[in-house]
Request: fold
Amino acid sequence: MNRASPQIVRSVPLTVPSKPAVGAGRSIGTILVDSGRLSPTDAQRVLDFQRERGVRFGDAGIALRVLSDDDVRYALSIQFGYPYLARGSNLSRELVAAYQPGSRPVEQLRELRSQLMLRWFDTGADRRGLAIVSAGSGDGRSYIAANLAIVFSQLGERTLLIDADMRAPRQHHLFNLGRTAGLSDMLAGRAGLEAVVGIETLQDLSVLSAGAIPPNPQELLGRQDFSKLLQSLGEDFSVIIIDTPAANTCADAHTVAVRAGAALVVARQDKSSIPQLARFTHGLREFGVALVGSVLNDVKSGDVPASTPA
Reply:
């Protein structure tokens, strides 16, 4: 029996999240009134207080207790076209790049983003994909992949996060997508580009979940169909971040890294085995994978300090 091939239809462009109107030219008060976070009456009270005290609008609103810190952050995100998640969002709190964009771990992710842009994404039109890999389980690949995808999208890059861990997927949980069609379904020819989901609250970010857990993930990822899919998706996205299973449990990570062309290696402080990590990275280099960076995930402090390989 002939297996089905994924259908990549290009007659209609892939729909990705469109940017909301940037708030340039709109005051914080106008943004908050338009969004329903502030009544026109309270907005006038804040303006009067602002003129009397000579303080910023947000500080005046907080002093009058008609605005919260979250309201002010929301208005600023609209003014500067910088998406973030407010408290009460149904997305996972692990998405620190969206919930806590000013925190130290997120600043370190931005430093890593800059390195990756210089070392990989800005060095060739065909360099769109990056596999997030690690030698062992529990190193934080999904956490790093999700938050790295968010900081790339905050830069204004059209970013796609793919969950290629078809054994124990997590990205659909982090982004509250439910059990929808995903990568496995596309590679089996059971779904098309509609499986790519735009994250409405995070402009420029889309997610392709793992989909149904198949009996043959290694074979699906090893087929040329996966390479063709990545190439096709590269027409719509400038950055493609790919989550993978641990390398010590299966060969999927090697396969995905080869298809992507580049890998970011994640290790966990006080847990990862140095000899195991050395064997893994040596194997990737033998397969011709460009190792463009590494992350030491410090789960005790919440830091994600970045380094780059020689």
About this structure: Residues 1-22 have pLDDT under 50 and may be disordered.
